[in-house]
Amino acid sequence: MATTTATVGVLAPPSLARPSRSLWSNAWWKLRRDKLTIGAFIILLILGALSLAAPLFSDYVFHYRFEQQDLLHTYEKPTFENPAYLLGSDEIGRSQVVRLLYGGRISLTVGFVAALVNLTVGVSLGLSAGYFRGPLDDAITWVITTLNGIPQLYLLLIIAALWQPGPLTLIVIIGLLNWTGISLFVRGQTFALREREFVTAARTIGAKDRRIMFRHILPNVLPLIFVLAAIDIGAIILLESALSFLGLGILPPTPTWGNLLTNAVSYFVRAWWLVVSPGVLIFLTVLCLYLIGDGLRDALDPRLKTH
Amino acid sequence: MTQKRLRTLIAGFAGTLLLVTACTPGGQGNASPTPTAATSEKPQQGGRIVEATISDIATIQPILSADTASSRIINLIYDGIIQQDYKNGEPKPKMATFSISQDGLTYSFEINAKANWSDGKPVIAQDWLTGIKAVGKSQKTVRKSNFQDVEGFLDYCVGSSSSGCTGTAKEISGVKIDSANPKKFSVKLTKISCPAIIDLNGYTLPTQVFGKYVTDSSKDEIDTAPENTAPTVFSGAFKFSEWRKGDQVILNKNPDYWQGAPNVDQYIYKVVANQTAIANGLKTGEITWGNIQPKDLADMQTVDTIKITKYQNLGYTFISWNTLSPTVPAFADKRVRQALAYGIDMDQVIKAVVFGEATKQVAHHVPVQWAYPSSPLEPYKYDKAKAQQLLTDAGWVKGSDGILAKDGKKFAMTITTNSGNQERETLAQVAAEQYKQLGIDAKSAPEAFQGLVTKLTTGDPVIEANIIGWSLGGDVDPYQIWHSSQIPDRAKGTTGFGFTGFKDAAMDKAIEQGRNPTNGDCSTAARKAQYETFNKILNENQPYNFGYANNVLVGAQKTLQAFDPGSFSAIWNVHTWWIKQ
Amino acid sequence: MRDFIIRRLVYAVPTLIGISIITFAIARLSPGDPIRLFTFGIKDFTQEDYLRLLHAYGLDKPMPLQYVDWVTNIFRGSFGESLIYHRDAFVMLMERLPNTLQLALVALLIQLIIGVPLGVLAALKRGSWVDGAIRIFGVAGHAVPAFWLGLILIILFAVNLRWLPSIGMLTVGHDQWDIADRIKHMILPAFVLALTGIANYSRILRTETLDVLAQDFVRTAHSKGLRERTVVYVHALRNALIPVVTALGGILAALVGGALVIEQVFSWPGVGQFTFQAAIAKDYPIVQAGVMFTSTLLVLSYLLRDLTYAIVDPRIKVG
After folding, report:
1. pLDDT, mean over chain A
2. B278 contacts B50 by C-beta, under 8 angstroms
3. DSSP type of residue A137
């Protein structure tokens, strides 16, 4: 029954330093058949591409700058007649669709970059703690349990209340706080992998610690880190919107999906459609990311529990 | 010392129980019939009023209170000796009548014979003294300076050495209680001070409760008195019953209220999350009355159970120009500031930002204050051409990129404002966009209030333009904001609210004469003349774009009768309110 | 087992020290000044008054000294006096704690009552449309911004349909013990707060039930001729519930944190809302007490989780 404990090591052919191609191709084969995950991936790509091309859209399609106002056309309903007001206009006549495109840039960037920071910090600390053990592990574990001891959303909200964040500060704050889960996971994996034959083998032929960690252990952990990353990005996007709701997220005039939604909520009785579009985008993006996370996990190792 | 205005006002207390209109304790004849009570219906007894608020009260101790929520409850349970007229703010008698001596230094008060505490004891001069002594003893009050002109207060009060408080005396020498009549007393000031009368309302506290905290041997026990959160004896229309922290404060009617028992049984001050929740609560009937936001007005007007009352806010929202800014030297030029006034379509902005529910403001005092100038001011009607002309006159010429420049330096500015205030954030964005049209590289930047406040009051040079609002309660004296002594100076380490850095000798003189007139004339007419000059100078120099004065929009259930809120008080006649079944 | 408990309790000490340092640091090192904040616009307020207040609240001392003062006072039973309310911060938190606990416990109950059967159902009906629907719900429940859902539900059920109240814990003026009224007020916030948890539990239970169903002992039990239902409910579910217990600690954290947002949306006078508003007002003692208290609660709940885990799953090495 002990064999049911899920570790990546089980999948890695013991004699190989790197996971075989078959792990990846096997996963890819499974993924291709998973229509839900592929669909989610495509939607996410489209959303990313649209956001990336926001300036092009604002210049050549909508002919409307994202900060451009028109006080005579406020709370316009969505219309096909004026492309800029495709999704309506806000309380000072700005184009909702253009702002959503620009907002996507910030929201997605914050999600991806903060998750990247999480991964960098989480993986390197988890790897070191699991590999070197001893006092270093104790210290890192102490930091993790301490950070985990403070309700995360709570801590973030209070930090944000005390320091009003811009996009960069928000990335730094979330990036430096949200890595503990990843770190614990990597640490656990490393602990197990360290004792495997291929690591011992590498050590006997005189491989350095760094080489073992990055060439032998990390590649085995990496696939599942993608799973964690997808979920992490989604969680960060949600976090950004919750912070915005409390007035502590990235502030207007910089548009983000979170602050567009928050702003619209207070004008709900005047223009309910302004609430729908950012809400749907957040929901859709996060849903896609979670579905991708799920799909990847199933493809890589259906027995793995990331929760 | 001519033209002393001897004010001996006798409040008309007779018949307050029967006639709603008679209960304005006004001796000045401005008691107007309240619109909702115009019918001769007899008030029904019973029921409950639920007022919505978005912040919980902090304390029920008047000397410690510094927030509007707390003062609401305090005003419902403790009556003052004087009050401000609810419409124009002039001081009027409440529990006491008052008169001022010929030399303008001694104020005499006589507390109404009927005024009593809820435990049956009469309200006496000693109770007023207890309040002032409590301020003297407290270490956490923000009101000490209000009484520094009372003779002997500085000898009595306890504080750090720099504050002038010595704590050497056992009594405040300037306060004299009539030995024959415990309801009569007088207060002597060390210098003539026109705003003093409103400060001298003080805090009339029940000595039988708080006396023990202001004995000769007490220190600052008043700051932590249990009665600060659960008071036991009252002089107001309602009695404190329970404070469910973070949720609501429950008050029951005071059947022995000296102006007559209230018609309703209960007054509940209910905390809700935000303005939207107030609107929702009004619709569902959970809330009897509360302030609503302009954006909800149109929607609320369609609800047939709700009545909307509007009155002008006692304050205004403005954009301040830091005339000392090292990064935007243009603000030092009067023509530029005038251009910034002409160059923004404020009427359009008001429409966009507050749905038209505000009045454009071009000087300091707001129309509901008696000090509002009667001679016309420059209205700064929107005139883009004139704005551009003024900028050209000041040497600012548009470059190839369309941005104004002078001596090779571009005209760029950042308009900061406190985040979380949606109205101001929108205003900042709209203003920035309009100034861009003038060729100014303007951008808006919201910032947390906490940090912003420190920057403003300490004169941090990073502040260029800033949007914030003033709330102008109390006396009309603008000293704190506009006197040159209030300009914060980093080098000297002084702080203040004069964060535009604008000063003018003639304006200083007008402010001083309106506050401490050398001829001792504190009459409204004499002071008004000074403020005429003061507002004129501000109007011409435009250290602020004075923005606008909002309308306060109050939503109330139609069943609520005799409800007549005004700019200076919404609850001045609360004991006559009644609920129609 | 006793050694295990003691060891874990001792381990909690450095964690709590770390938490106290972080708490103090984030509160104090942030820009802005609480005295300036709550005296802004106060008439005749002078620099002398400012210095007096700074001194009265002990904010004029060097920062490390203030930290030491704070910690020593905690051991004396005081988290310091609120700058705004002039009362002990901890006492004020305790006044609001029952409100948060009510909400969190009801939400937890909802999660278990709905989430667990959903997960088991999905596993039993594996591959069917029921399974598919529950799986999508399991992901979607995580992806919805909770505050947004809360506001939409308020507008729908409270404002438009008027089935449920929109604000607070009790209809104004109702008796504290009016349970029916209390439940009516709790439905919306507790449901929104529980949503993530429902999704979580349904996912966990689905995976676990599938796992367990595939295991030898179930197959054995099955082959012995026991009825399938008995197999599932008696054997499988007991094993499948272990990760539910493990997840409890994390879910409690999510509840406490999430409650902050939900309390704000529904005007629920709880600890989260209170601490959050104190953070906005820079009322240090309350912020510090709030974070310190919820964190201690969380550390204890992790401890409790490990203990329960050790008890329900004897395979776990104690230690």
Report:
1. 81
2. no
3. H
Instruction: Give the pLDDT score at C67.
Output: 92
- Inter-residue contact B164 to B494 (CB < 8 Å): no
Of residues C171 and B151, more confidently modeled: B151
CATH 3.10.105.10 for domain B315-552: yes
* Chain-chain contact of A163 with B433 (C-beta, under 8 angstroms): no
Q: Which chains touch B (3 or more CB pairs under 8 A)?
A: A, C
**C193 close to A (CB below 8 A):** no
Instruction: Indicate the fold that domain B82-227 takes in CATH.
Output: Dipeptide-binding Protein; domain 1 (3.90.76)
Strand partners of residue B468: B318
A294 to chain C: closest CA residue:
C139
Per-residue pLDDT tens digits for C277-317 = 888 888 889 989 988 888 888 888 888 777 777 776 655 54
- β-strand pairing of B397-398 with B404-406: antiparallel
> What are the chain C neighbours of B229 within 8 Å (beta carbons)?
87
Q: What is the mean pLDDT of residues B500-520?
A: 94
Q: What is the DSSP string of chain C?
A: -HHHHHHHHHHHHHHHHHHHHHHHHHHHSSSS-HHHHHHTT-TT--HHHHHHHHHHTTTTS-HHHHHHHHHHHHHTT---B-TTT-SBHHHHHHHHHHHHHHHHHHHHHHIIIIIHHHHHHHHHTTTSHHHHHHHHHHHHHHHS-HHHHHHHHIIIIIIIS-SS--SSSS-TT--TT-HHHHHHHHHHHHHHHHHHHHHHHHHHHHHHHHHHHTSHHHHHHHHTT--HHHIIIIIIHHHHHHHHHHHHHHHHHHHHHHHHHHHHHTT---HHHHHHHHHHTT-HHHHHHHHHHHHHHHHHHHHHHHHHHHHH-TTSPP-
* Residues in chain C, total: 319
pLDDT at residue B228, as a whole number: 93
pLDDT confidence of residue B163: 66
Q: Where are the domains of chain B?
A: 82-227, 315-552
In angstroms, the separation between the Cα of residue C121 and the nearest Cα of chain A is 19
The answer to whether the Cβ–Cβ distance between A163 and B448 falls below 8 Å is yes
Domain layout of chain A by residue ranges: 29-300
Is the CB of B273 inside 8 Å of chain A's CB atoms? no
Identify the structural domains of chain C with CATH numbers, from first to last: 2-75 (no CATH), 90-312 (1.10.3720.10)
Nearest CA in chain B to A163: B448
Return the CATH number of A29-300, one of 3.30.360.10, 1.10.3720.10, 3.40.50.2000, 3.40.30.10: 1.10.3720.10
Distance CA B278, CA B270 (A): 10
Q: Are A82 and B362 in contact (CB under 8 A)?
A: no
Complex-level ipTM:
0.81
Residues of B in contact with C37 (CB under 8 A): 449-450, 453-454
The pTM assigned to this predicted structure is 0.81
Nearest to C74 by CA among C129, C119, C21: C21
Cα–Cα nearest to B574, from B323, B359, B269, B199? B269
Q: Based on C-alpha coordinates, what's the Rg of chain A?
A: 23
Interface of A with B (CB under 8 A): 67-69, 71, 74, 91-93, 161-164, 247, 251-253, 263, 265-270
